[in-house]
């Protein structure tokens, strides 16, 4: 199967499995796992933050950040299609007791003036604004890179109002590789960052959250409260180190293949590519094909291809390190067969 449902489907390489087997471990709740400590140090340094923490998933990292930054009854500003709003089962409201204020974005980017206008004043009827969240790359916007200039303007506003900024950087390294801007340049306009090791970077498990020492001190406690304090977690952190040290470069290939796929599909009748393909995500509107999303996905599956749904009539492809150039050619051919069987 050519699995393009997500970059979460990547499997650990042999080198990762070997590193897991050989990992030096200790009890990480006591702070004694040398492999976890090493991963956290590398991550903090790469992001230019004081400290970092290994967490089980992107969702857990985002939730911990919200719990550290916010008090119940506050409001959190984010883009209307942010993963934190649409795909985390309302966890911020359920756990941190906050409400979400969404702003329509342009390719995933919130307008700084809209952010400033959304910040609440002292009116006793209103909640306080407790946090601003940015997502980069932006998943629902098709892996769009939010430019650091946009983040900088929002950060300046946040500081004027004394509100922290959290970055859901599940795919921050994709943003960095596509723009050739170091991750530090994005991270510097934030108070906390979450990025995933288990997506395009290819590790089997885990995310990192990073920020000031004080933020991570509090985050460590929240992680424990949520049951995320792991013991000999070095076996999970070891592939994370390889992900950071060796797999960032491979994202270039993922992006190249995504662009090739988009080029190959763009003139096929019955589909429309919805996004400017900047990174590893392609969104395809199949409305004109007169097929239901379910039928479309089933027919692709018959050709050995897995894709995901991403809203009504939209299917998503995500290139990842299990995909080759040959696979891309097969996908293009399969589309032609599904849409114009008589031509093949
Ligand atoms: N995204 C997954 C699905 O949940 C949609 C995917 O396949 O893209 N932030 C962003 C921007 C994400 O895309 C995701 C996962 C997360 C957070 C959550 O990460 P995990 O799955 O590790 O909890």
Automatic annotation (TrEMBL):
The keyword Lyase applies. Its EC number is 4.1.2.48. Residues 3-287 form the Aromatic amino acid beta-eliminating lyase/threonine aldolase domain. Its cofactor is pyridoxal 5'-phosphate. Keywords: Lyase, Pyridoxal phosphate. InterPro entries: ArAA_b-elim_lyase/Thr_aldolase (IPR001597), Low_specificity_L-TA-like (IPR023603), PyrdxlP-dep_Trfase (IPR015424), PyrdxlP-dep_Trfase_major (IPR015421), PyrdxlP-dep_Trfase_small (IPR015422). It is an enzyme of class 4 (lyase). One of its GO terms (molecular function) is lyase activity. Transmembrane segments: none annotated. Belongs to the threonine aldolase family. This is Low-specificity L-threonine aldolase. It comes from Jeotgalibacillus marinus. The gene is ltaE.
